[in-house]
Specification:
The protein is an all-alpha fold. It contains four helices and no strands. It has one domain.
């Protein structure tokens, strides 16, 4: 039987359980894990057309930091008036 979605109310409660297991890679491999993950991320990033989670958001943030944010003049005037009051 398929479970209902966790988000929303369609189908009622999903009727499933979840189990999360977490471990500290530092405890097992020291700094080797971080080095290998960094190498893996670099290898993926070097592939044409590859995208890593967070890439688009990072690029948007960098663009905003570089170019600023466009705000309509009337809105900016309202903000400045509110700040000045």
């Amino acid at each position: 039987k398929d479970a209902s979605p966790f988000a929303g109310t369609a189908g009622g409660p999903p009727g499933t359980g979840q189990c999360f297991i977490a471990f500290d890679p530092q405890a097992f491999s020291g700094d080797v894990f971080a080095e290998r993950v960094a190498a893996l991320v670099a290898a993926i990033a070097d592939q044409e057309g590859a995208h890593l989670p967070g890439d688009k958001g990072k690029q948007a943030r960098q663009r905003t930091e570089r170019d600023g944010v466009q705000v309509q003049r009337d809105l900016l005037d309202k903000i400045n008036a509110w700040v000045a009051s």
